[in-house]
Design goal:
194 residues
Length: 194
């Protein structure tokens, strides 16, 4: 635990942030910042409703905050994208529940005494203008093999250097460079398809 606590939060892995959340609320804030736009875009693409996408996103992160302490026991090993997959499992479950009940449940936000969402016209417009290109690239990124997706996301989205990615993914820097290169090449090909 001493190693994790000495890690600056911005450079901590997702799993480290979730493990720190029960003792350091700022850790979850960093995790939230990493994924808020991505999760919001995920819901926007599926619902095409800004209010519903924002509501679902709020409930997903409230649920994630509530269960962050249990993440370590569930993951059982190094991060390697498991925290992201865990978050998307929560997102898919929230989406299914919303369709089943005809509304977004706010049970987690209620338990956390979170303020109700107040969506202004400006916020709704911003959600509706989520960059279509970014959404398309994120969907294409999800289609890459896991090792390439993790390498490209780490290098391009998280802006990690190759040494950090090498440590995170437990492979040599040359393997990381190869995965990033192959992943970017595959993304270019897929993005350029008609």
């Amino acid at each position: 635990m001493a190693v994790i606590e000495s890690t600056p939060l911005a450079k901590a892995s997702d799993a480290e942030l979730l493990r720190l959340t029960p003792v350091n609320a700022e850790a979850f804030g960093v995790f939230y910042d990493r994924y808020e736009r991505e999760v919001l875009a995920f819901f926007w693409r599926r619902t095409q409703r800004a209010d519903l996408a924002a509501d679902l996103t709020g409930e997903v992160f409230a649920s994630a905050l509530e269960s962050a302490a249990r993440f370590d026991a569930e993951s059982g090993r190094a991060d390697l994208g498991r925290a992201r997959a865990w978050l998307y499992t929560i997102a898919r479950r929230q989406m299914a529940d919303a369709w089943e009940h005809g509304r977004v449940e706010n049970a987690a936000r209620t338990r956390l005494n979170a303020e109700p969402l107040l969506l202004t016209d400006e916020i709704i417009e911003l959600i509706e203008r989520l960059d279509a290109t970014e959404s398309d690239v994120l969907e294409l990124l999800d289609e890459l093999p896991e090792e390439q997706r993790l390498a490209v996301k780490g290098r391009v989205v998280d802006e990690c250097d190759y040494a950090e990615l090498s440590r995170r993914l437990s492979v040599s820097q040359s393997v990381v460079r190869q995965r990033v290169s192959r992943g970017l090449r595959a993304l270019r090909r897929r993005f350029d398809e008609p």
